[in-house]
Amino acid sequence: MTRLLLASASPARRATLLAAGIDPLVAVSDVDEDAVLAAATARFGALDPADAVLLLAQAKVEDVSRNLPDELEDAVDLLLLGCDSMLELDGQIFGKPTDAADATARWRAMRGRSGVLHTGHWLMDERDVPTMLGATSSTTVTFAALSDEEIDAYVATGEPLAVAGAFTVDGLGGPFVDRIEGDHHGVVGLSLPLLRELLGEVGVTIPSLWNKS
């Protein structure tokens, strides 16, 4: 039996898969993202945002793969999926804010402007001959021109502190996004069309992963 294992603690990514009929196994990685990016930058120089999120998605999958319990690895044929998202604005990339002050500063810089949300996807097929492949979805997001009061109220909810880019489109931040150009699933954190393409590369269809119970 082939199962998809999501190497992420993100409730939004799991909810996206569940809404698409896929009930994934979940295992959370223990990756030091800053260390991964620092090592890659030292070796290759400045990273393109699309490459940075793909590198982190790969690191999450590889960490989970190394630490799988034997009983899980032996019970099913696993497809491991890792994702990572960052917002690109003014040539810089932003993950989760460090604190409320950081989230507030970001929103004051973002309001009324557009940024690009990059989500890297890394798939590891552990059936038969192990195979790895990945791709990044990039979606332009235009933010509403929020007042200082709206920003302060949103940051006070705590939601922006838990997500890349300090915003959501499927939560309290939804009204503060004016427009999305591209795949909205990618903004939530997992592009279903891109996942379908990656699965197709290893001969797996979306319907074959649907929850049959």
From TrEMBL:
Entries under PANTHER family matching the protein: BIFUNCTIONAL DTTP/UTP PYROPHOSPHATASE/METHYLTRANSFERASE PROTEIN-RELATED, BIFUNCTIONAL DTTP_UTP PYROPHOSPHATASE_METHYLTRANSFERASE PROTEIN-RELATED
Family: Belongs to the Maf family.
GO molecular function: nucleoside triphosphate diphosphatase activity
Catalytic activity: a ribonucleoside 5'-triphosphate + H2O = a ribonucleoside 5'-phosphate + diphosphate + H(+); a 2'-deoxyribonucleoside 5'-triphosphate + H2O = a 2'-deoxyribonucleoside 5'-phosphate + diphosphate + H(+)
Cofactors that this protein relies on: a divalent metal cation
Gene coding for it: maf
NCBIfam families attached to this UniProt entry: maf
Primary role: Nucleoside triphosphate pyrophosphatase. May have a dual role in cell division arrest and in preventing the incorporation of modified nucleotides into cellular nucleic acids.
Keyword set, alphabetical order: Cytoplasm, Hydrolase, Nucleotide metabolism
Record-linked InterPro entries: ITPase-like_fam (IPR029001), Maf-like (IPR003697)
Chief site of localization: cytoplasm
Species per Swiss-Prot/TrEMBL record: Cellulomonas humilata
Name this protein carries in UniProt: Nucleoside triphosphate pyrophosphatase
One cellular-component annotation, GO: cytoplasm
